[in-house]
Amino acid sequence: MAASKVSVEDIKRLREETGAGVMDCKRALEQAQGDVEKARELLRAAGLLKAEKKLGRVAREGVIACYIHHGNRLGAMVEVNCESDFVARTPEFQQLAQEIAMQVAGMNPQYISRDDVPADIVAEQRRLFYEKAIADGNSPEDAERIAEERLNKFFEEVCLLEQACIRDDSKTVGELIREKIALFGENIVVRRFVRMAVGD
Q1: CA–CA separation, 135 vs 116, rounded Å?
Q2: pTM confidence score
Q3: 187, 93 in Cβ contact below 8 A?
Q4: Across residues 87-91, what is the average pLDDT?
Q5: Residue-level pLDDT at 130
Q6: Could you tell me the keywords of this UniProt record (predicted)?
Q7: CA 165 to chain centre
Q8: Phi, psi angles (nearest 5°) of residue 168
Q9: What's the sign of the alpha-carbon dihedral 36, 39, 45, 47?
């Protein structure tokens, strides 16, 4: 489709929804022949290759999102950061923050990433898993492998970024965030979270 047939309204809509640059939105719409949904997917796919390079960039803008479960007895609050106020105000970014707050409330992670787990806890878990594998009759070599597998499973349970998404368990929270980094073209960081339940 010729560039002249891509409407300004569609470019504006795509930019507001994704946070992508004007020219990127225009090119995606041209490739998608004016189909906004297809253009959004093209932007996402193109950005995935660049996402890893953006992970180290400073993210100081963002939002604080809250989720309160039915009955008002369980809730969570998260701070999710990005690089620009423009992206922070997009509906998709705010929805991401809301989903992460829901994840924290529902799955009760203890840490953001495995790097946040204290070394003494990691060492103790590894020792316990190794001793259990030995007690089950495994050789030392097999016990080492089993201990590492169980340690990775432990990280998947207690680390937010390694948990399966509560709304789509085909991907982890970390993978979801990397998809959004690709979509927005900005680094995204979960800065902190807190979970509260009545009686805890």
Answers
A1: 30
A2: 0.69
A3: no
A4: 92
A5: 94
A6: Cytoplasm, Elongation factor, Protein biosynthesis
A7: 9
A8: -155, 90
A9: negative
* pLDDT(81) > 60: yes
Structure tokens at 10: 């569609």
Average pLDDT over every residue of 140-149: 92
Quick check: 56 and 67 in contact, CB under 8 A?
Answer: no
Answer whether residue 128 is part of any domain.
yes
Q: At a CB cut-off of 8 Å and minimum separation 6, what does 9 contact?
A: none
* Same domain (yes/no): 27, 99: no
Write out the two tokens for 99: 């989903």
- DSSP 8-state class, residue 166: S
Mean pLDDT in residue range 179-197: 90
The CA distance from 73 to 200, in Å, is 10
Contact (Cβ atoms closer than 8 angstroms) between residue 133 and residue 147: yes
Helices of type H across the chain = 8-18, 22-31, 36-54, 85-88, 91-107, 119-135, 140-158, 173-184
In a domain, 163, yes or no: yes
Dist CA 164 CA 103 (whole Å): 9
